């Protein structure tokens, strides 16, 4: 982790803490020594970060003018909160943590008049669903392969538990109410397919990038499915 990234990560960790947290705890979360942490705290404070505390007691990030306010109105704030709460309910551990971190970042830079909408929104997500079937392959494997445009070899079992082996080009993960899917180009079928992640028994990268740009392939899939860029159904007007 670079020094700049480490300093920004430390700020983010402090934003998510409502009470003072000890140097040992912060150092553990960042996987650095306490000596390095003390230097980072001193540097951030010198730059104007409103960090209050001392060694042996703990540190807390107070409200202040360290970051410019984010000018969102109440409706915009509630839309973001609703979306992040939905992600927290239906995402995996990685996305749930990312949603919490994003919410802490937004809270730190919201204008005062928008904070009421953040803390007491008038909209709420529905119940968290019925739970998801366990995955044999961690979702992060699919996420990383998608970002790397890496071909994946998967062992897949269909609804009748019939096994097949596929070589796919992963394009996106989908989080539905009861299942999670991966959108991909399937070399066996020569077409776009969706695969339930709980039916993928094994997955491994082949050390080969698939051709073209993921954004172009995803755009073609959306067109076939009559979806817009936000995933909304757009029926053919012809």
From TrEMBL:
Q: Which InterPro entries match?
A: CBASS_pafABC_assoc_protein, HTH_11, WYL_dom
Cite the WYL domain residue spans from the record: 139-203
Where does the Helix-turn-helix type domain lie? 6-59
Residues folding into a coiled coil are none
Pfam families noted in UniProt: HTH_11, WYL
Q: Please state what the protein is called.
A: YafY family transcriptional regulator
Organism, by scientific name, is Pseudomonas azerbaijanoccidentalis
